[in-house]
Amino acid sequence: MAVMELLPFCSIFLFTLLASSVSEARNVGVNYGRVANNLPPATKVVALLKSNGIGHVKLYDADPSVLRALAGSGIKVVVSVPNELLASVAARPGFAQQWVQRNVAAYYPSTKIHAIAVGNEVFVFPRNNITNFLVPAMQNVHAALVRLGLDADVKISSPIALTALQNSYPSSAGSFRPELVETVIRPMLEFLRQTGSYLMINAYPFFAYEANSDVISLDYALFRPNSGVVDAGNGLKYYNLFDAQIDAVFAAMSALKYDDIKIVVSETGWPSKGDTKETGAAAENAAAYNGNLIRRILSGNGGTPLRPQADIDVYLFALFNENQKFGPASERNYGLFYPDEGKVYDVEFSLGGGGGGGLRWEEDGGRPSPSNSTSAPPAAEGAGGTVRASSTGETWCVANAVVGKARLQAALDFACGEGGADCRYIQPGAACFEPNTVEAHASYAFNSYYQKQGRAGGSCYFGGGAYIVSQSPKIGNCALPSGV
To answer: In this structure, are residues 7 and 16 in contact, taking their beta carbons and an 8 Å threshold?
Structure first.
């Protein structure tokens, strides 16, 4: 992570993954940084990851002791080629081959290395003069994987900071810095397309909020209920700064005609402590940001207003507070854990059971009907219910409780009103009125609207209050319709 990430806001102001998931494509992981002299040994760290259900980890190097400790753990790993090696990897295919052999092939598949990050935030410090090495280095690493027969299993990318953008507000105006487009951005995106990989983005709403707290709502930055911000360029309404930042990148990629490339958020987080002038750096804010983001991703609502169908994996920064990092106090206080393995604040890494407004998932679909099931299926990680896979290929739209009851109620009112959803079955006394909760009723109404719209893209968003599932849901004893 860069010490500072300054995002333009009309030149000053900007609005600019945890193993369990609803599907394989939605994960929350952690960055395991080690710029500290007091961290536990790698074997204890792996035990910590497993005990907290964290199934994805990103490293900033390929340290042998860490890779050996991860062997047999089942944890998926991203290893990194440090910036200082880019010149050698780019200029010498043999060096790249040797690096891949020693740091990937030697541990795979016992250590589940599934991606290589070539460099990190290469464009942040122009004086390093390594930008031109990036794409050749990625190509040489990929060629090495091909020779070893690992290219289908191990993807290659390179994390970029949002400072790679010339414009990021409003999101619809997102564009890359002109001096980077032809020299490195377009060639990198073409490489990612050809290899079936994804773009890694380091996105920190904290920096934007800290620099512009007089105009950016803290609720907007922390995924808490708020009135939202309308993007005048595309008419979309944003309820959190994270979405706005990611959609600025999507817009920048779209301007270059690379709409088909997936984004992975390789770093994001919020500091639990900072210097006096670092507005917003506090444990309660870090818990809100990371906790709400985890729930949002794992509940299946990983899309954005511009890309509602996107599955965006996220890696939180960072696993530990790192006492030897340079810069302001916040840089040493992004950790989810202290070096003694105690939690810095209380945040859960899975959705768990319970709650969910009475939602559960069954195999059957169809019109509203009583459930004949007398036994509960296995617990799911989804919307607080249970889940069994459906083989129909159909999809449904359900409510996301993370946004809060007020926003769900407003969206429910729209769906049953001008949205034209069939809400007869959730009226008092009707077959699907129970359970009488906002989330349960909203799920029924959202799904009705979604099905009436032909499951069109964007019709299951409701300001972040809904997400798509591929298993047939039930509300109480009523199955949600799979068609109109």
So the answer is: yes
